[in-house]
């Protein structure tokens, strides 16, 4: 009898312990347990709003040197990376028959100049004959008036004067035509000379040869570049900034540039231009950033990372961005009261790339809010404050 009673007591004790254990597990570790959260306080300090983008190194002033007509490359005198000066001959194209055309044009111009000189001499002679004929006709008319000359003779003299004047006018017209022919011949020579000059590719600036695109013997079409020359002082970064973050970017703002080839070093820069035309497909805006001092061994086309400071506040209340939540299209934070959370609306200002958000209204310095929770919070949910959340509840 005592042994049976002892067994029942043990079973009851085990059952009670199991129920208590299950209850403890349900209220401390299971679905009925309070959600573990960590807290943070509103702090005061400097904030720097920044925007980030990826870009490439490009030359603002780049020159593609090539012919205006189809040509064959005769010589290339420089190579990629060579420093050149303004006016230096870099390459020469095969002039084909341009030299002959220049010589032929000069001969035509010389012949036209001779024609002009001959016409000028003829005009002088014709004008002299016309003056004599007009004077003779005037004298004959005076003698006819006195009765010393017949009418027929006077009319003949006047006819000779008219004819001489007409010849002088015709000779003047021939001189004008000869001059126009001479001018046209000179223009043809100048035009062919320009074509011949275009066969010589010279550097327009002091710069660096960035690309040698063709070798001697290559045939190229009009407008195709043989060489590319850049002004090394015009190197800058063409960065792409998300349109949602580009609204505060302005010319003159400071920037930090990190090269892909030198990721441990930060180069200072400045925004020099914000393009008016945006990329509607990628939803990006082009921002051009210049180096404060151009780094050595910089390569065109190299990828870079750009961080632009758009706003700076010396002393502002802030919270970690992770503490700010959006519920029903309202920014706010979770605050604890009597072991339960309530959603507290706030007005948020600028945000920094290191994960801090300015608090414009709704909180004061020192106010505590929830920064992390092991699961999504709901209004009036029970919570338990811990120092750190080691693992999320499953």
From TrEMBL:
Domain YknX-like C-terminal permuted SH3-like, first and last residues per copy: 319-384
InterPro entries hit by this protein: RND_pump_MFP (IPR006143), YknX-like_C (IPR058637)
Similarity field: Belongs to the membrane fusion protein (MFP) (TC 8.A.1) family.
NCBIfam families for this protein: RND_mfp
Protein name per the record: Efflux RND transporter periplasmic adaptor subunit
Taxonomic lineage of the native organism: Bacteria, Pseudomonadati, Pseudomonadota, Betaproteobacteria, Candidatus Accumulibacter
């Amino acid at each position: 009898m005592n042994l049976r009673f002892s067994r029942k007591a043990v079973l009851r004790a085990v059952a009670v312990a199991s129920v208590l254990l299950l209850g403890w597990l349900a209220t401390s570790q299971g679905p009925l347990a309070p959600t573990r959260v960590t807290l943070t306080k509103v702090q005061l300090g400097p904030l720097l709003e920044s925007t980030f983008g990826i870009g490439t190194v490009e030359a603002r002033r780049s020159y593609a040197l090539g012919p205006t007509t189809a040509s064959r490359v005769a010589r290339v005198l420089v190579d990629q990376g060579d420093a050149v000066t303004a006016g230096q001959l870099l390459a020469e194209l095969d002039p084909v028959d341009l030299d002959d055309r220049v010589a032929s044009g000069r001969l035509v111009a010389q012949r036209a100049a001779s024609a002009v000189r001959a016409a000028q001499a003829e005009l002088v002679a014709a004008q002299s004959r016309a003056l004599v004929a007009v004077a003779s006709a005037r004298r004959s008319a005076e003698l006819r008036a006195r009765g010393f000359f017949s009418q027929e003779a006077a009319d003949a003299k006047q006819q000779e004067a008219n004819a001489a004047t007409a010849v002088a006018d015709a000779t003047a017209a021939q001189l004008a035509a000869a001059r126009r022919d001479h001018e046209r011949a000179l223009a043809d020579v100048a035009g062919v000379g320009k074509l011949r000059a275009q066969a010589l590719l010279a550097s327009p600036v002091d710069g660096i040869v960035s690309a040698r695109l063709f070798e001697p013997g290559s045939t190229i079409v009009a407008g195709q570049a043989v060489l590319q020359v850049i002004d090394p002082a015009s190197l800058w970064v063409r960065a792409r900034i998300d349109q949602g973050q580009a609204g505060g970017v302005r010319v003159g703002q400071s920037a930090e540039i990190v090269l892909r080839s030198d990721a441990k070093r930060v180069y200072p820069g400045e925004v020099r231009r914000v393009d008016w035309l945006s990329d509607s497909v990628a939803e990006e805006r082009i921002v051009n950033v210049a180096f404060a001092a151009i780094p050595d061994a910089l390569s065109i086309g190299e990828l870079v990372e750009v961080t632009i400071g758009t706003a700076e506040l010396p002393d502002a209340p802030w919270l970690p961005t992770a503490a700010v939540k959006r519920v029903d299209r309202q920014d706010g934070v979770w605050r604890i009261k009597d072991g339960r959370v309530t959603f507290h609306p706030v007005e948020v200002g600028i945000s920094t790339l290191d994960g801090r958000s300015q608090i414009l209204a709704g909180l004061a310095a020192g106010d505590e809010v929830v920064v992390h929770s092991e699961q999504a919070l709901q209004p009036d949910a029970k919570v338990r404050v811990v120092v750190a959340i080691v693992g999320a509840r499953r």
